[in-house]
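Dear colleague,

As promised, here are the two records you asked about, laid out in our usual form so they can be pasted straight into your sheet.

NAME FIELD: protein one
SEQUENCE, THEN STRUCTURE:
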Amino acid sequence: MRSNLNSPNDNLNNGLAFIARELANVRNNGLSQDEFNALLAQKTDQLSKLFATYARTDTDVLMSQRLRSQQSGVVDIAPEQYQKLRQAFLSSLTLESLNQELKLQLSQDATLVLLQPKGEPEMKYEAAPGNL
């Protein structure tokens, strides 16, 4: 999971505490049916837009990308097959299975990497025990 928090140093503790509370809430309570439905709709829409982008891409560009993938030894599948597999995954996803996976992932020990912009004074932050 990756999150981006742009905040001045004086708001950093509050921002990190908010993120910790929200992650703990998702871990403990999971997503609601409405949140799940919204997420599923968002991912389905993104998949449609991605495939529409592929459809507008010139054949020579697609061939070049696939050739580079094969030369690099990267596993490569056709855009049509990707769409089919991804749609099958989204169709099989249930609220219960997603919440179970979220609980599993968010129950693992967490590591937070905080990158401060150059020139910003360094700030130490220690998570309170039990926040996550």
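NAME FIELD: protein two
SEQUENCE, THEN STRUCTURE:
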Amino acid sequence: MSKFYKKNKNLVRPLMVTLGILLIPIFGNLFTEGWTWGPLDFLIMGVLIYTTGVLVELANKKIKETNYKLAAIGGIILMLILIWIELATDAVSRFLTIY
């Protein structure tokens, strides 16, 4: 294992997971009709997934109590899901235009 990885594993691990997750839409773009992600979509989701990973690593490292750690990680993942839903469906914006 390299020195860089040992020193920065809390930043490298989320990067590797992010790249692995982004392989799914890359293959979707290549092999499936109707899956149309542009470069900006990949950038936004990459930043969102990477930030979530870094926050999970930070919570895992800094919070000692197991219940608080699970609550924090659950909250972080819930925020990822809510932001993802908003970006995918534009639901909040449509709701606000109704009222």
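A couple of things worth noting about protein two: The chain has one domain: 3-98. The mean pLDDT is 88.

Best,
R.
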